[in-house]
Design brief:
Elements: H1 2-14, H2 19-31, H3 35-48, H4 53-65, H5 69-82, H6 87-99, H7 103-116, H8 121-133, H9 137-150, H10 155-167, H11 171-184, H12 189-201, H13 205-218, H14 223-235, H15 239-252, H16 257-269, H17 273-286, H18 292-304, H19 308-325, H20 328-342
Helix pairs in contact: 1-2, 2-3, 3-4, 4-5, 5-6, 6-7, 6-8, 7-8, 8-9, 8-10, 9-10, 10-11, 10-12, 11-12, 12-13, 13-14, 14-15, 14-16, 15-16, 16-17, 17-18, 18-19, 18-20, 19-20
Length: about 350
C-alpha cells in the first residue's frame, strides 16, 4: 500500500490537476482506515472534476465511517442528482438515514433501490432493519426472508431475522437462524449471543450461559454480551456475579443505560440501596424518556433508606409516567407505594 501511495504521490507531483490520482489515493487511504485523509483527497478530486459521481459516493462512505451521517447524505444526494439510477446511492443514503433515526425516509430510499434492482439483497436487508426499528417486526422478517433467498450466505440477514424473532417471542426459530450463522461462521459472536438470548427466554439457562461465555471469548469488548450474561445471572439469583458482569458492561460502555438499571436492581436485591440509587440516577440521566420503572425502583430504594419525601417524589413521577404510557401495572404499584408512605 505504501508503494501505491508513492505512485499516487508521484502522479500528483507530475500533474497536480490529475483528478483520478487524488481519487485513487483516496481509495487507498480509505482501505487503510485513514478516512479523514481520504476525504481530503476526494475533496480535491471533486474540485477538479465536479461531475465525478464516484468521488462523491466514496467521500460519502468515508464520512459515514467517521459518523458524519448528515454530511454523507449530502454526498449521496449529489450522486443521485448526477446519476438517478445509482442503486447503491439510494441504499447507502437510506442506511445513513437509519443512523439519524429517519426510518420512514430510509424506507423510501430502499424501495427506490428495489425498484431499480429487484435482486439487490442489501436493499431488502436494510429496509428490514428500518422496519424493525419502527416496530414493524413481521414486515421486517418478510424483507429478511427475501434477502436470504437472494443471498443465502449473508450472515447479517440471518442475525437480523433472529433478533426480530426474539422480539416476537419466536425463540425456537431464532435459535435456528443463529445456528445457521454459526455454521457459516463459527466465530460470529453475535450468533452465540442471540442464541443465548433465545435459550435464556426458553429457560435453558445452562446452555444460554455457555453461549454468552463463547460470545464474550470471541468479542471481549462487547458490552451487550456482558449485559446479557448478567441478566441471566440475575434471574438465577446470582446477584453479586451479575453485578460483576454489569460492571464490565459499563466499563466497556460508560453510557450503557440498561447496564446501570440492571446493576441497580441487583444492588437492591443485595440491600445496597444507596449504590442502587446512584445507578438509577445514571439510567434516568441517560434514558429520561423511558425511565418510568427507574423512578419507581429508585423510590423503593429511597424508602428503604428512610427518605420518605424523596421516595414520594419518585413514586409520583413514576405514576405520572405510567398513566401517560398506559402502564396499568406500574400505575397500580406506584399508587400502592404512595398509599403506604401516606399512612
Amino acid at each position: 500500500m505504501k508503494n501505491n501511495f508513492s505512485d499516487y504521490d508521484k502522479a500528483i507531483r507530475l500533474n497536480p490537476d490529475d483528478a483520478n490520482a487524488y481519487f485513487n489515493r483516496g481509495m487507498a487511504k480509505s482501505e487503510l482506515g485513514q478516512y479523514a485523509e481520504a476525504i481530503a483527497d476526494y475533496d480535491t478530486a471533486i474540485r477538479l472534476n465536479p461531475d465525478d459521481a464516484k468521488a462523491f459516493h466514496n467521500r460519502g462512505a468515508a464520512k459515514s465511517e467517521l459518523g458524519r451521517h448528515a454530511a454523507a447524505i449530502a454526498d449521496y444526494d449529489i450522486v443521485i442528482r448526477i446519476n438517478p439510477d445509482d442503486t447503491s446511492a439510494y441504499t447507502n443514503r437510506g442506511f445513513e438515514k437509519i443512523q439519524l433515526g429517519q426510518h420512514a425516509d430510509a424506507i423510501e430510499d430502499f424501495e427506490i433501490a428495489i425498484q431499480l434492482a429487484p435482486d439487490d439483497a442489501s436493499a431488502y436487508l436494510n429496509r428490514g432493519s428500518a422496519k424493525h426499528d419502527l416496530g414493524q417486526h413481521a414486515d421486517a422478517i418478510e424483507d429478511y426472508d427475501i434477502a436470504i433467498q437472494l443471498a443465502p450466505d449473508d450472515t447479517t440477514a440471518y442475525l437480523n431475522r433472529a433478533l426480530t424473532k426474539i422480539q416476537l417471542e419466536q425463540y425456537a426459530d431464532a435459535i435456528a437462524d443463529s445456528e445457521i450463522v454459526i455454521q457459516l461462521n463459527p466465530d460470529n459472536a453475535d450468533a452465540y449471543q442471540y442464541r443465548g438470548m433465545a435459550k435464556f427466554e426458553l429457560g435453558q439457562h445452562a446452555d444460554a450461559a455457555a453461549d454468552f461465555d463463547i460470545a464474550i471469548r470471541l468479542e471481549p469488548d462487547d458490552a451487550k454480551a456482558f449485559l446479557n450474561r448478567g441478566l441471566l445471572k440475575y434471574r438465577l439469583g446470582l446477584h453479586a456475579d451479575a453485578i460483576t458482569d454489569f460492571d464490565s458492561a459499563i466499563r466497556l460502555n460508560p453510557d450503557f443505560a440498561k447496564a446501570y438499571y440492571n446493576r441497580g436492581n441487583a444492588k437492591t436485591e443485595l440491600g445496597q440501596h444507596a449504590a442502587a440509587i446512584a445507578d438509577y440516577d445514571s439510567y434516568i440521566r441517560l434514558n429520561p424518556n423511558f425511565a418510568k420503572k427507574a423512578y419507581y425502583n429508585r423510590g423503593n430504594a429511597k424508602a428503604e433508606l428512610g427518605r420518605a419525601l424523596k421516595a414520594k417524589q419518585d413514586f409520583q413521577t413514576a405514576l405520572q409516567l405510567a398513566i401517560k404510557a398506559d402502564d396499568a401495572e406500574l400505575k397500580t404499584d406506584a399508587e400502592k407505594a404512595l398509599r403506604i408512605l401516606n399512612e
